[in-house]
Design goal:
mainly beta; two-stranded antiparallel ribbon; 136 residues; extended; single chain; 3 helices
């Protein structure tokens, strides 16, 4: 009694030791703190960063100070948004256990017999650019 649940004690978003602060120009309090991967994906210069139904234009990402400088924009007056271009690959590293997936007979007829595996994996992630997309 009195102990917190693990999900309340450990925030998986903050598990990365490298954290970036999102700072609105003219303010001294951070808008938000993001892990390194998320910062690289969402806070590149020229990006539109969305937070609590507001849009912020990213003017600068200071990698040494780990600060993204943003200015507010009204999302209703913007005709575009930005997104990261990235590729993820999950590679099974062997070993572990495997079993047939427990699915309904209808799905088994459609899919065959999928296999569920348990074991080590390596995740490769690469970000290779950004794009500006029209809202229309």
């Amino acid at each position: 009694k009195g102990r917190k649940a693990p999900k309340e004690e450990v925030n998986l978003r903050d598990i990365d030791p490298v954290q970036f602060q999102v700072m609105v120009r003219g303010n001294t309090t951070p808008l938000e703190t993001l892990d390194q991967k998320t910062a690289y994906m969402r806070l590149h210069p020229g990006a539109l960063y969305l937070n609590q139904q507001w849009a912020y234009f990213v003017e600068e990402l200071d990698l040494n100070a780990r600060i993204a400088w943003v200015v507010p924009r009204n999302p209703k007056h913007l005709d575009y948004y930005t997104e990261c271009r990235e590729h993820s690959q999950v590679v099974l590293s062997g070993g572990g256990k495997a079993r047939a997936a427990a699915l309904s007979q209808m799905l088994l007829r459609q899919l065959g017999t999928p296999v569920v595996r348990c074991g080590g994996v390596k995740v490769h992630w690469r970000m290779y650019g950004f794009r500006k997309k029209s809202k229309q």
